[in-house]
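Notebook p. 47: complex prediction with 7,8-dihydro-7,7-dimethyl-6-hydroxypterin.
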Amino acid sequence: MYPAFIGLGANLGQPREQLVYAVQAMASLPDTRLTHVSRLYGSPPIGPQDQPDYVNAVARLETALTPHRLLAELQAIENDAGRVRERHWGPRTLDLDLLLYADDEIRTVNLTVPHPEMVHRAFVIVPLLDIASDAVLPNGAKAASLQAATPGPDLLVLAESGWWQT
Ligand code: ROI
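Predicted complex, C-alpha cells below:
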C-alpha cells in the first residue's frame, strides 16, 4: 500500500455536499483505505475572478492502485458528481487532484505528480499540513516551510475535521 494525497475543490452546485460525496466515494475505492481528511476551507478563486469562492480540503489514502489507475478512479468520481467544466481554470462541480503519490515523480501526458501548482496554493498546503504536518515533497522540500503554508486572511476554516461524516 502506498500513501497518496488528494486535493478536493468545488465551487458550483452544492460544494460542501460534493466534497462529502467525494470523500465517501474515495473511501469505497477498491484496494484503498481512507486514513485522514483535513478541515474544510473556503478560499477565493485562484485564476479568473468571475467565479464563486471555492470549498477545499485534502484527503490521505493508502492504496494499492497504481497512480494512473487511481487517477482514472478519481476522474470517474468527478464525473459521477456531475462534473461540468466550462473552461480552463473555470468553475467546477468537483475537482480531485492527485497531489502526491508515495515519493514518486511522474511526468506523463495526463498525469504530473507532484501536482505542479500545489506548492503555490495555500488552499492545498494548509489542509495538507492539517493531516501531515511533516509532509515532504519528492525534491526534499518540507511543506511546512513553503510560503503557502502561511495563509493570508482569505483562507477560512469552514468546518473542523469530521465534516464529511454524516
Ligand atoms: N481556486 C481555489 N481557491 N480553489 C480551487 O480548488 C481552485 N481550483 C482551480 C483554480 C481554477 C485554479 N482555482 C482554484 O482549478
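Notes: Residues 9, 43-47, 54, 56, 89, 95, 123 surround 7,8-dihydro-7,7-dimethyl-6-hydroxypterin (CB under 6 Å). The radius of gyration is 15 Å.
Next step: compare against the earlier run before touching the bench.
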